[in-house]
Amino acid sequence: MLRDIPTVKMTSKSTEKWRVPDNTRLIWVSWDDEFILFHSQAGKTHYLNQVGAVLLQELETNTYSVSELAKKLEKRLGLDISEEFVKRIESLLARFDHLGLVSKHSPLSN
Amino acid sequence: MNNATHLSKTAQELLLRAVRSPDIMASFSEREWDLLLRVGRRTRLLARLAIMLHESGDVARIPTRAAAILEGVHVYANKREQMMRWELNRLCWALRETHTPLILLKGAAYLMAELPPALGRIAADVDILIPENKLDIVEETLKQKGWKATKLSPYDQRYYRTWMHELPPLRHIEREIEVDIHHTILPRTSRLQPNAELLLQDARITDDPMLATLSRTDIVLHSAVHLFYDSDMANQLRDLVDLDDLLKHFGEDPTFWPQLLSRSERLGVGRPLFYTLRYTQRILGTKVPEAVALEINATTPNPFALFLMDWLVPRGLLPDHPDFPRVSTGLARWLLYLRSHWLRMPPLLLARHLSYKAVLPLIEWLRSRKRPGRAASERV
Amino acid sequence: MRVGELDLEHLQQRLASTGLKVSMGPFTVSIRSTTLSGLIDPLRYLYHDYVICGESEISDYHVRVAPPSNIRRWIHPQVQFLMDGNSPFRPFPARLAFPLLEWGINWCIATRAHQFLLLHAAVVERRGRGIIFPAWPGHGKTTLCAALIHRGWRLFSDEFGLIRPRDGRLIPLPRLLPLKNESIAVIREFEPEAVIGPDFTKTRKGTVAHLRPPTGCIKRAGETTQAAVIVFPRWQSDVPTSLEPMPKSQAFLMAATNAFNYEMLGETAFRAITELVKTCSCYRLSYSNLDEAINVLEQVAIQGNE
Question: How many whole angstroms from its chain centre is CA B121?
């Protein structure tokens, strides 16, 4: 029974979808592989590397789960998906969530 | 009339003319503008005037330098509004799982309910009302999500928790706006004790299910209580303008006035409503239906108290000429400052509070004739 | 009329009554003061070329320097700075009345002039091209700026890079340059003709002396320009002079984080700095010798935009 609990959690987490909230206005400027972003509602400027920028740009156009995002990044940046990389995506998403750049979009609420 | 009195009267008259009929500003001379900009700033009304001029197009007809200064003020007001909106967005995000709708008070409510006083209103903080039994969960959740109690001495911390009607102010570590969470609208020790339950029951949900405002009568009554029973009124003309705006806005519907009267009775806040109607009429020319004016007279204070308030209130709310502050204004404000504490606390606690806290600021304040502890709202 | 054309008696009388209204770039500052000899002498000398505005004109800032009304005035004479009757900082010793006035006016601009984007930078103009030196504390922008304006460069400002958001133009604000500590001697030696006020010792930043910009810079305060180059200067003893291109993303971040009111202006500031960094050449300059640094900057000013 106890072993079931993490599995259940894992399932709910992997089906959890993310996106940039509808009314969000992001203004991008980039030089080489560095991105600067202005988030109008928050009035904050963020400096992003390529991984962060690509991830956020994907979520601006569509709703994705963590595994879907990992695949997108693999394709666009030619990276190998490792467990570590997925964890990095998750922590990036948590940070973006805190900043109000992305929000959870659970399939149930559709 | 001595020179200082004459200059202060001129300054007050100029400000009131601009506030009451904004169109008149297009005809002001450079000299008048120079003074209006100063007293408008002092009373936190400049951003409102700037936006009105912008919207009417009159900004093109006023002196260029005045327009440039107002542009700077407008930028500041826009920034404060954006900060307020974003803080509310983040509060909803943080508190969604606590299932506690946040009842917005004052500036935050005017903004989200799109009420007239929101125009150019620069609020130093976000004020929120929640049921008392939700205080702990809300405080804990916010602290987990990045909000921290602002730096307070242990005495202040205890003062807030024990005697005030709010948690010690919280601020998110990455942002600058303060969040004040109240469970009722006056301190526990205050002379008036409007029943917070009644306010909560009548609250209205906004477009966002996490956000609510008080009912329209309660919005007015809260604003009235706040100005006349929970502040020292110094340069607070802005708050009287809020009341004027609200009365004009809600008063268009004739059913509003009897509701306002009966609600004030139900909540036991007839006196602050009496002062509101008296001084909005006297200072801002607010139109109050005759029957309402007659009925509210039942709550008139005794003649001596009324005489005193008639002397004190305009001297508190209206600014002196910035270069020629008057001794009589200083005296009136000192009395209003004492009055505000007297109304908030029983005598023994008041004595303790004053001895710990107020004596020093009081002396400094008399010296500088400056209101203590509102630096943020005077920044513009 | 300029401050220098007013005799001492009239100057004192204005300061004591309606205020001395002085034009400083886009701002008019009304200065009032009680009779303080420590203030009036440097003010007369250093504000010599600044234009006095009409008495009924609108002032951006109403400031006053006066002794605080407390008991200490008899023991340690003090002065305080007041803006519209409010005093934003603690009193200073009375002998520092003039630096307090200068500092206070800067404070007014930094906290209120949000009609402009206020970069924290020195700005000069050469051959019609604006050059911005963002502040990098202790890296000597004031010294470099002081040297340049005595070699034919036009001073815009030593402290505030004023950008008008509507069109991105740089606006001159030729205020006095506060030279600190060793720079005072460096500039006296570099330019013996430089007009420098008295040394104020033991301020919070050590010894300060104010440099009056050349008359032409003050007279041309109404002429704006377009920014062309951003240079991050760094003075270090015994380094060879070197100028290297700087990555634009870094230039953006340094200009933005240094600005006084970047967050206040929000999107307007983001767009203005983006445009600035896109259109300007961005460099890092290391130097120890002022003449060499000026030669390198002359080359930069001649080159067109790449």
Answer: 10
Q: Would an 8 Å CB–CB cutoff place A94 in contact with chain C?
A: no
Greater model confidence, C34 or B47 = B47
Residue C230 bridge partners (DSSP): C132, C282
State the residue range of the domain holding C259.
117-302
List, edge to edge, every strand of the sheet that includes A64-65.
A64-65, A17-19, A103-105
Q: How many residue pairs bridge chain A and chain B with CB atoms within 8 Å of each other?
A: 16
Examine the domain organization and report whether C282 and C233 are in the same domain.
yes
Low-confidence ranges of chain A (pLDDT < 70): 1-14, 106-110
Domain limit, last residue, from C112, C138, C170: C112
Query: Which among B82, B90, B93 has the least Cβ separation from residue A43?
Result: B82
Q: Which of C248, C267, C271 sits opposite A31 (nearest CB)?
A: C248
Q: Which residues of B touch A103 (CB under 8 A)?
A: 93
Q: Residue A110: what pLDDT?
A: 40
Three-state SS letters, B343-378: HHCCHHHHHHHHHHHHHHHHHHHHHHCCCCCCHHHH
Angstrom distance (rounded) from CA C122 to CA C109: 15
Same-domain pairing of C97 and C146 = no
pLDDT at C305 over 70: no
Buried b or exposed e, range C198-223, using 16+ CB within 10 angstroms: eebeebeeeebbbbbbbeebbeebee
CB atoms within 10 A of CB B159: 19
Is pLDDT above 80 for C219? yes
Report the residue of chain A nearest B80, measured CA to CA. A43
Number of domain units in chain C: 2
Q: Do C16 and C49 lie in a common domain?
A: yes
Position B165 scores a pLDDT of: 64
pLDDT tens figures, C162-192: 999 999 999 999 999 999 999 999 999 999 9
Domain termination site, one of C112, C134, C151: C112
Burial class (CB in 10 A: 0-12, 13-18, 19+), B103: buried
Q: Which domains does chain A have, with CATH numbers?
A: 17-103 (3.90.930.60)
- Confidence band (pLDDT; 50, 70, 90) for C74? low
Q: Which of B82, B85, B86 to probe the A interface (max A CBs under 10 A)?
A: B86
| Banded pLDDT at B118 (limits 50, 70, 90) | very high
Mean pLDDT of C145-165: 96
Both ends of chain B: CA-CA distance in Å?
31
CB atoms A43 and B79 under 8 Å:
yes
Retrieve residue A20's tokens: 């940039």
Chains with 3 or more CB pairs under 8 A to chain B: A, C
Contacts of A27 in chain C (CB under 8 A): 267, 270-271
Are the beta carbons of B82 and A98 separated by less than 8 Å? no
The Cα of C84 is separated from the nearest Cα of chain B by a number of Å equal to: 6
In this structure, are C80 and C220 located in the same domain? Answer: no
Task: Determine, for residues B72 and C115 on separate chains, whether the beta-carbon distance falls below 8 Å.
Answer: yes
Give per-residue pLDDT as tens, B312-326.
999 999 999 998 889
Same domain, C161 and C248: yes
Nearest to A43 among B86, B145, B146 (CB): B86
B220 near B260, Cβ under 8 Å? yes
Alpha-carbon distance C258 to nearest alpha carbon in chain A (angstroms):
13
Supply the pLDDT for residue B369: 43
How distant, in Å, are the alpha carbons of B68, B106, B155, B222 from that of B160?
42, 20, 9, 20
* Same domain flag for C195 and C105: no
Residues C217 and C274 in one domain: yes
Which of C56, C113, C264 is facing B79, going by the closest CB pair? C264
Closest CA to B77 of B28, B111, B35, B128: B111
Residue from C274, C246, C227, C208 nearest C123 by CA? C227
Record the pTM.
Answer: 0.90
Pair (C18, C121) in one structural domain: no
